[in-house]
Amino acid sequence: MGSSKPKSRLEQQIDENLRKVYQQDAEPEMPDRFMKLLEQLKEQDTPDGR
Amino acid sequence: MVGDRNPNGEKPPADPRDEIVEHLGSLRAFAVSLTRNGSAADDLVQETIVKAWKNFDKFKEGTNLRAWLFTIQRNTFYSQRRKAKREVADSDGEMAAQLSVKPHHDGRLAMNDFRTAFAQLPVEQREALVLVGAEGMTYEEAAETCEVAVGTIKSRVNRGRKRLAELMQLRDDESLELTDQATVAVVQIGNQPRKFAV
């Protein structure tokens, strides 16, 4: 099942737009926030840290 | 999808949790599609990271990390949403009813118009479309991520696409890159414009 049915032109275009929007949103201008968070979590976990 | 490692690579990552970082972009994009709001999305990603970190022992190594993270994220989102609903009565349906549709002539379909149309879809359709259409998951993977049957995902994707086409007044023989004689449905949220991450 699944991909056996060829996508219509409309579907392709919708998916194309979905991907564009998605890629825009995936560009995090603030990766710092998440990187810091990961670092903090890591520090909390490091056994020799305490 | 990202994350292919050298098949013969001998050194395993020091900490498998380090791989979470590779999925931050996707997590954020998925969060935006769920919340329709950039700062809410960031908060959701943050909570997802913390939960994933603390529950990492439940992740089965060798399985799809991104799908696992997405599952955590959507569960977090839905449980917040249930909580919020008790406080503010605002379902997707009610919100959609407030939307005014303002068709106008435009040379090209702006990405924001697509976003606005997308934001009107029910959340179940948004996530199904994003997972399958943008993230490139198979129906099976998306079904697993959303913890529903494969048929359910398929019908959500189909309904979502159909609704998008309607909202944008597209037929199968028309292009999304509209010519100026075509009318684009530009929908705006009445007096309280929602902010999308631009």
TrEMBL record, chain A:
Protein name as catalogued: Transcriptional regulator
Any Pfam family hit: NepR
Matching InterPro entries: NepR
Organism ancestry: Bacteria, Pseudomonadati, Pseudomonadota, Alphaproteobacteria, Rhodobacterales
Residue stretches making up the Anti-sigma factor NepR domain: 12-45
Superkingdom field: Bacteria
Organism: Rhodalgimonas zhirmunskyi
UniProtKB/TrEMBL annotation, chain B:
Segments forming domain RNA polymerase sigma-70 region: 22-86
Name this polypeptide is given: RNA polymerase sigma factor
Claim: Membrane is one of the keywords in the record: no
Residue ranges of domain RNA polymerase sigma factor 70 region 4 type in the record: 113-164
Keywords: DNA-binding, Sigma factor, Transcription, Transcription regulation
Molecular-function annotations in GO: DNA binding; sigma factor activity
GO term, biological process aspect, one: DNA-templated transcription initiation
Family (UniProt): Belongs to the sigma-70 factor family. ECF subfamily.
